[in-house]
Amino acid sequence: MACGLMPEPRGGGYDEVMTGGVRPPLLKRLGPGWWVALDAAVAVAAAAGTVAWLAMRRPAELTGPPAGPVIGYMLGLAATLPLAVRRRYPLTVTGVTLVASVALLVLVHATATVTGATLGLYMAAASGERRRALAALAATLAGVAVVYALVPTHPPDPATRVLSGALSGLIQVMAWLVGDSV
Prior knowledge:
The protein is mainly alpha-helical. The chain contains 8 helices and no strands. It starts with 13 loop residues before the first helix and ends with a helix.
């Protein structure tokens, strides 16, 4: 120390000397464009997983309307692809993915979750519009209740169905709480 106030640089450059070599976490360094790309990648991966999952099911398992598989694919894409714009339109994405997920489960009787709506619900709560986010939470919980009440094969045992529905509802509330607190 030359004068006793500042440590001598150790050849690391200005940033290393001023911050002690500590960098902010990766998520803090990502710009808005990276978040859009990340959301698009999540939406495409979720859509691919849903389509692959529907394709692996036997046609006899996909009951419902005669065009069950085609409707299933369309609803599966509608339940996942809107996630690409969830940061810009969180309430709309929550609504679209929720309706598509519930319709996929009720019309096609395909066993799935309301994961798209959960991700949208998190962003809706994080957006700061608390009353609308609470309405989105209520709608999502109602959607979960509809799924577990109307789809008899999801799961087949009534006690397990109630427990699974309660757990799914708890996950929705937790997603909302985390989004509301950030």
